[in-house]
Amino acid sequence: KARPQDANAWVVQGLVAEQQRRWNDAALAYAKAIDVSPRTANAWTRSGIVAIRRDRWQDAVTKLETALQLETQASERLMIAKQLSLGYQRLQLVDQEKELWVNLAQRFKRDPRTLQQIAERLRVIGAHQEALKLWQELARGVLGSAITVVESPRQFPGARPVCLLSAPDCWPVWPCCRLSDVHKPGPNPSCR
């Protein structure tokens, strides 16, 4: 309150209110931060998280979408996406959630660990083809041409995934099937 035109001071006040579980006060402080400086990504993010705490899911989604557009740091973008994904799930916005993760994958092309998380998230929400594309990119990045196409395992119905059959040391990276599941080895293996 001593610096009403300082967005960061309002964010700190909001953080203190959050720590004390005073959600209304936190929401007001973040709203003030946004009024003072509408491009403060952290204020939008925290405001969205407080909206989740207050069970205001549509408001949370709107604020977190804005935060995602404003945020420049990769790690923060991933955290915002995870929170936004919760909002999409709660509001049953399946297409938006899929689009969120597909778009985020484009921004993390050079980060295999994050791409792995995104591919798994896509698989969990039923976006099997999109998840498969990421797993294939990851496999090619790790192994180059040392990958083999197999028939559809249970986790990817109707898809033609790639398994890391020739590189067991890289196996934990790939969820589609395990070496023990391969019952037809050779140039055209398949999973049980």
Structure description:
The chain is mainly α. Helix content is 59%, strand content 2%. The chain has 8 helices and 2 strands. A two-stranded antiparallel ribbon has the order 1-2. Helix 7 packs antiparallel against helix 8. The longest helix is centred in the middle third of the chain and has 17 residues, at 74-90. It is elongated, with a radius of gyration of 21 Å. The protein starts with 6 loop residues before the first helix and ends in a 29-residue tail after the last strand.
Summarize, please.
This protein has helices at 7-19, 23-36, 41-53, 57-70, 74-90, 94-107, 112-124, 128-143, and strands at 148-149, 162-163. The protein is an all-alpha fold and 192 residues long.
- Our Rg estimate from Cα atoms comes to 21 Å
SSE string: HHHHHHHHEE
Strand content: under 5%
- Distance, first to last CA: 64 Å
- Spatial shape: elongated
The total strand number stands at 2
Largest sheet: 2 strands, antiparallel
In the sheet with the most strands, the strands line up as: 1-2
- Unreliable spans are 145-153, 159-192
